[in-house]
UniProtKB/TrEMBL annotation:
Residues 44-157 form the C-type lectin domain. It is found in: Cell membrane. Gene3D superfamilies: Mannose-Binding Protein A, subunit A. It comes from Urocitellus parryii. InterPro entries: C-type_lectin-like (IPR001304), C-type_lectin-like/link_sf (IPR016186), C-type_lectin/snaclec_domain (IPR050111), CD209-like_CTLD (IPR033989), CTDL_fold (IPR016187). This is C-type lectin domain-containing protein. Its main location: membrane. It is a single-pass type II membrane protein. Keywords: Adaptive immunity, Calcium, Cell membrane, Disulfide bond, Glycoprotein, Immunity, Innate immunity, Lectin, Membrane, Metal-binding, Signal-anchor, Transmembrane, Transmembrane helix. The lineage of its organism: Eukaryota, Metazoa, Chordata, Craniata, Vertebrata. One of its GO terms (cellular component) is plasma membrane.
Length: 167
């Protein structure tokens, strides 16, 4: 149902089919709210995620998310990170919405979520350099772990996050 309603290149037939299916679903599930993600976005909890396929600077990546009514991903839990890393390439790195603009260890999430030391997933030895202002998620073959690394803000893949759409 979600892939149909969020597909903007939809055909009329599919729309009609959706309306009928949705109507029956509503009648059967009185009071339940439908939520979904746009096509090509992944759904987890109350958010939708988009994995970019081209490398851009952190600023360009955030602007790209913003054009889609989203922001660079804010990781709030291990569960959320584990969900995201399933879709990541172990040979790539992905910008998240966390930066230290002044290089003084004042880490800031793009959506103003307070930086909570107890919900951080830095690789051992990270953050490492005060001139590395942007955070990537990557996989380390040495530890076989996914984790965060502070890195230069240039050219990486990225992940966008938005709230699910409620119908
Ligand atoms: Ca680093």
């Amino acid at each position: 149902i979600c892939s149909q309603v969020c597909n903007f290149n939809n055909t009329y037939t599919l729309k009609i089919h959706f309306h009928i299916t949705h109507l029956f679903a509503l009648l059967a599930n009185k009071g339940k709210v439908w939520s979904c993600c746009p096509e090509k976005w992944k759904s987890f909890s109350s958010s939708c995620y988009f994995f970019s396929t081209d490398a851009k600077s952190w600023n360009e990546s955030q602007e790209n998310c913003s054009r889609m009514e989203a922001h660079l991903v804010v990781i709030n839990s291990k569960e959320e990170q584990d969900f995201l890393t399933q879709y990541m390439d172990k040979k790539s790195a992905y910008f998240v919405g966390l930066t230290d603009p002044e290089g003084q260890g004042h880490w800031q999430w793009v959506d103003q979520t307070p930086y909570n030391q107890s919900a951080t997933f830095w690789h051992p030895g990270e953050p490492s350099h005060s001139d590395e202002h942007c955070v990537i998620v990557n996989h380390r073959p040495t530890s076989l772990q996914w984790g965060w690394n502070d890195a230069p803000c240039e050219k990486q893949l990225s992940v966008c996050e938005m709230m699910k759409i409620y119908l």
